[in-house]
Design goal:
By secondary structure, the chain is an all-alpha fold. It is built from ten helices and no strands.
């Protein structure tokens, strides 16, 4: 239920509900919990969109019930939900509040956002380092991120969460390869 509440908070942050957002939500819940769950989730979220949401309380429940790797993947899903129709400032603001309340660092948040908002330093942000980092620091950051986002860390969660972990893991690998190519490592 907490996941549905956070999904509703992200969807309603920009003041409009799009068919893309509902399709992303439905797909996530259908893949993880079965086709009926996708339809039920959509109906529940539509009802939640009319209510005030206490993010602090909901995020506190998630923080106490999910381990760190699971919270990272949950956050990745929420950012993908916000990004499915373009990330607007209000959505970004809500997502940053959620990240803070569930205990994610700014560098982790930037790393996840970098997948959805490419920029000149996206590869470095994905690895949570500055472009001025040494080659050794790049290698160390890559190893750290590869361990942090390895799909095996969320093997107990649904298929869609595992897929998101694989996407993040792939993004980490691609970022590292691009930096290595750029630097001739």
């Amino acid at each position: 239920m907490s996941l549905l509440v956070l999904s509703a908070a992200v969807i309603k942050a920009d003041g409009k509900t799009t068919s893309q957002e509902l399709a992303t939500l439905r797909s996530f819940f259908s893949k993880n919990f079965g086709p009926q769950a996708g339809s039920e989730a959509e109906e529940i979220v539509k009802e939640l969109l009319t209510k005030d949401i206490n993010l602090y309380e909901v995020c506190g429940q998630i923080r106490s019930c999910m381990d760190y790797s699971q919270r990272l993947q949950l956050y990745h899903y929420l950012v993908s939900l916000g990004a499915c129709d373009g990330l607007l400032q209000n959505e970004t603001d809500v997502l940053e509040v959620i990240a803070s309340y569930i205990g994610l660092s700014k560098s982790e948040v930037d790393s996840i956002f970098a997948q959805f908002r490419p920029s000149n330093d996206s590869n470095y942000r994905i690895l949570e380092i500055d472009p001025s980092a040494s080659n050794d620091e790049v290698k160390k950051a890559y190893r750290k991120m590869a361990i942090k986002y390895h799909p095996d860390k969320v093997a107990t969660l649904g298929e869609d969460v595992q897929k998101a972990a694989e996407e993040k893991f792939k993004a980490v690998n691609q970022a590292y390869e691009a930096i290595c190519k750029e630097r001739g490592i």
